[in-house]
Amino acid sequence: MKHFLHVNDIDSSASWLSLAAECKKEPFKYEKLGKGKVLGLLFFNNSLRTRLSTQKAAYHLGMHCMIMNIGSEGWALEFEDGTIMDQGKAEHIKEAAQVISQYCDVLGVRAFASLEDKEKDEAEQVLNGFKKYAGIPVLNMESATGHPLQALADLITITEHQQTKRPKVVLSWAPHPRALPQAVANSFTSIMRNNPQFDFCVTHPRGYELNPEIIGDSPVYHDQNEALKDADFVYVKNWSASNPYGAVLNNDPHWMITPEKLGKAYFMHCLPVRRNVIVEDAVLDGNNSLVIEQANNRTYAAQAALIKILESL
Ligand SMILES: NCCC[C@H](NC(=O)CCC(=O)O)C(=O)O
Ligand SMILES: NC(=O)OP(=O)(O)O
User: Fold this and answer.
1) Disulfide check for 44: which of 71, 193, 220, 230 has CB 3.0–4.6 Å away?
2) Origin, by domain of life (predicted)?
3) CATH topology of 7-146+298-311 equal to that of 150-294?
4) Nearest to 143 by CA among 4, 303, 275
C-alpha cells in the first residue's frame, strides 16, 4: 500500500511524467483501475483547484468521490493522545480515521500549517494522524510542510515549456498581506533538487529562510534582481518568516513581480494569487504566464498519484 505524502514519494520523475502525459492525452485510459473504489477528500482549509482537479482525476479513473469540508462541517478533532476531552473537541482522530477508512479506499487530506506551533507543524500531526489510524492510502492535498501534487503539476508544466536542456528556474518570494504557509515553496524546492537537470536558485528577503534541510545546497540570493538574471522560469510565492515562526516581517512592494523583472521568462504561481501585490496585472494577463496551465496540470498530477496508489492496493 502506497501513500502520496511528499515529493520523495515520486520514485522516478521520468516515469511519473510520462504517466501524467499519457493521462493528459487520453484521460480515461485507466478508467477501469478505480472502478468500485471510493476516494474520500477531507478539507480542513479552503480550496478551488485541489478540490476540483482531484475530483476530476477520480472521475477519469472511474472512482467515486466523497468530499467533506471537515474543518467547518465535521466535529472538531482531537489529535493529542491521552487528553481529557472536556473542552471544545468532540471526536478523536483515532475513531474518526478508522470510521472514515470503512467508507473509503483512498483518503485525500488538506490541512495547512497552524503557523503557531512550529514543532507540531513539522510533525505533520493531521496528515500523520490519518496515515497512522486510517489504514488506507493517504494523498497529501497540501499539508503543514508540503504540497506535492502542486510540485508535480509544476514539474509537468516546466517540462512542457522548457526550450533548453538546463533551464534556469528561480523561486522568488513576493509580498502578501497575510501570513502564508511554506508548504508550496518547500515542495517546489524539493522537486527541483530531486531533478538536478534544472539550474535552480531561491531569492527572498532576510528572515524568510526556508528549512535548511529542504534548501540543501541550492543557491539563495537576498538580491532579487541578481537571482532573476537570465531566468527561464520564475516561480513566485509568498511564505511567512521562519523566525519568529509564521510572522510577516516584510511587505516591501519592490519584491512584486513586474513585466520588467520577468523579462523573457515564464511566470509561474500555484494560485490563488493577489493581483498587484504578488504580481502586476500585466504579467498575469500577458503571454508569459503559465498559471492556467499549471492549474490544468493539477488534474494529471492527481491522476498519476492516484494510479500509483491504486496499483499498490
Ligand atoms: N494551495 C495553494 C496555496 C494555498 C495557500 N494560500 C493561501 O492561503 C492564500 C490566501 C490569501 O491570499 O489570502 C498557501 O499559501 O499555502
Ligand atoms: N494551488 C492550489 O492548491 O489551489 P487551491 O488552494 O485552490 O486548491
Assistant:
1) 71
2) Bacteria
3) yes
4) 4
Instruction: Determine whether domain 150-294 maps to CATH 3.40.50.300.
Output: no
Ligand 2 neighbour 150 (Cβ under 6 A): yes
Give 20 Cα–ligand 2 centroid separation in angstroms: 19
pLDDT tens-digit readout, 70-94: 989 999 999 999 999 999 999 999 9
Distance in Å, CA 48 to ligand 2 centroid: 5
47 lines ligand 2 (CB under 6 A): yes
Residue 176 assigned to a binding site: yes
Q: Is 302 in the pocket of ligand 1 (CB under 6 A)?
A: no
Please work out whether the CB of residue 53 comes within 6 Å of at least one atom of ligand 2: no
Q: Is the ipTM of this complex over 0.95?
A: yes
- Is the previous residue joined to 244 through a cis bond, with omega within 30 degrees of 0? yes
Domain boundaries, the chain: 7-146+298-311, 150-294
How does pLDDT run across 119-154, given as a tens digit for each residue? 999 999 999 999 999 999 999 999 999 999 999 999
How far does CA 312 lie from the centroid of its chain? 22
Question: What's the grid cell of residue 295?
Answer: 492549474
Ligand in nearest proximity to the CA of 187: 1
Q: Which three cell numbers stand for residue 248?
A: 510577516
Kindly state which CATH superfamily the domain 7-146+298-311 is placed in.
Aspartate/ornithine carbamoyltransferase (3.40.50.1370)
Asked whether residue 147 is marked as a ligand-binding residue, the answer is: yes
